[in-house]
Amino acid sequence: MSVLRSFFIWLLLALLASSSVLADARSFWSRQDDPATIQRQQLPLEAQETLALIERGGPFPYRRDGVEFQNREHRLPQQTRGYYREFTVPTPGAQDRGARRIVAGEQRDYYYTPDHYRSFKRIAP
């Protein structure tokens, strides 16, 4: 096999591998910027009640409700600092706040996380 042919085969394989890596990266970031959607009636009852409290403006049962959510994990669409606020969704049987939260955006966009920010679902309007 000629050196030139070997080079072109190597180049083709490298391009195929890199396009696969790029596709995986695009897929990863699109998942982060476009969480799956959940209907309000599919949320746990406690999350539905928390969402109703948020929409009414409180009062909220937990001291940390309404604090800024900084989106450090980049799992929600990027927004300006201060755009998101987080609220506790009570977890039956938990001795503390538990892992469930609703994150609210300034434009009335809401996200539910059952696992303390590891995953999110956008709550359908």
From TrEMBL:
Family matches, as Gene3D superfamilies: Microbial ribonucleases
The residues the entry assigns to the signal sequence are 1-23
Q: Any idea what this protein is called? A: Ribonuclease domain-containing protein
Q: What does the organism's lineage look like at the top?
A: Bacteria, Pseudomonadati, Pseudomonadota, Betaproteobacteria, Rhodocyclales
Q: What is the originating organism of this protein?
A: Uliginosibacterium flavum
For this UniProt record, the keywords arranged alphabetically read as follows: Hydrolase, Nuclease, Signal
Question: Which SUPFAM superfamilies does the entry mention?
Answer: Microbial ribonucleases (SSF53933)
A Pfam family cross-referenced in the UniProt record is Ribonuclease
